[in-house]
Design brief:
There is one protein chain. This protein is an all-alpha fold. Helix content is 85%, strand content 0%. The protein has six helices and no strands. The longest helix has 72 residues. The mean pLDDT is 84.
């Protein structure tokens, strides 16, 4: 069920039915005002969350960019080169996505928050001001009318004419305030259809542009991802076969360690010398204690 219509002609009569229909519009405007306030609050929280997310992603991508992926040996295989470079490629992709997100965040206030706040303050606020004026003129008019009705017929003719003139003047003021208030209500209700919805459309358009940019980057990333998956699978397969060989060699070393003595004349170097120094120092300390 929609809002009841307001006719300018009803402003003159000011019937109870007119007041009731007027109140329906006032309730709806107040509901819209509260909704926009909440929407601005939630929108600000969303923008803040996007900003924090963007900062976290940038920090994450910077960590990927700075890490040096080292492999064993001087000569790297093609698979190792691809894997080592993958972190920098990941960082490049994330940075590209964040560029579009930053544009969305930078424009969000001008696109969404400011227009909604402007509509709430200028349009709904003007309707509230119109209501204040309407209520003020209404109170003045009906107060004077009540006094006039209580005037004694014995009053002088000049006094009665002056009272009639005052009533006509206050009624005209009330009528004009009523017309202006009805006009403003109708204006706000019509402007709500575009000035309220347009900022939401613009914000969503920017948000979907960001999503689309991410999709485009994902499409560009697909060939690299496939190649990297191939390199990773090769590395995994090589690891499994090499691991078995190394494990067999380790087991042979465990079972026949005498066959794998180092070519040096010494069995072990370095560590025993350190231990010998420690033993000597401990012996000297014990002698001093005795």
């Amino acid at each position: 069920m929609g809002l009841p219509t307001l006719e300018f002609s009803d402003s003159y009569l000011d019937s109870p039915d007119f007041r009731e229909r007027l109140q329906c519009h006032e309730i709806e405007l107040e509901r819209t005002n509260k909704f926009i306030k909440e929407l601005i609050k939630d929108g600000s929280l969303l923008i803040g969350a996007l900003r924090n997310l963007s900062m976290a992603v940038q920090k994450f991508s910077q960590s990927l960019q700075d890490f040096q992926f080292e492999c064993i040996g001087d000569a790297e295989t093609d698979d190792e080169i691809s894997i080592a470079q993958s972190l920098k490629e990941f960082a490049r992709l994330l940075i590209a996505v964040e560029e579009e997100r930053r544009r969305l965040i930078q424009n969000a206030n001008d696109v969404l928050i400011a227009p909604l706040e402007k509509f709430r303050k200028e349009q709904i606020g003007a309707a509230k001001d119109g209501k204040k004026k309407f209520d003020k003129e209404s109170e003045k008019y009906y107060s004077i009318l009540d006094k006039h009705l209580n005037l004694s017929a014995k009053k002088k003719e000049s006094h009665l004419q002056e009272a009639d003139t005052q009533i006509d003047r206050e009624h005209q003021n009330f009528y004009e305030a009523s017309l202006e208030y009805v006009f403003k209500i109708q204006e706000v209700q019509e402007k709500k259809k575009f000035e309220f919805v347009e900022p939401l459309l613009s914000f969503l358009q920017g948000l979907f542009t960001f999503y689309h940019e991410g999709y485009e980057l994902a499409q560009e990333f697909a060939p690299y991802k496939q190649q990297l998956q191939f390199n990773l699978q090769n590395t995994r397969n090589n690891f499994e076969s090499t691991r078995q060989e190394v494990e067999r060699l380790m087991q042979r070393m465990k079972s026949a360690n005498q066959d794998y003595r180092p070519p040096s004349q010494w069995t072990m170097e370095g560590y025993l010398y350190v231990q010998e120094k420690r033993e000597s120092q401990r012996h000297n300390l014990m002698s001093l204690m005795i």
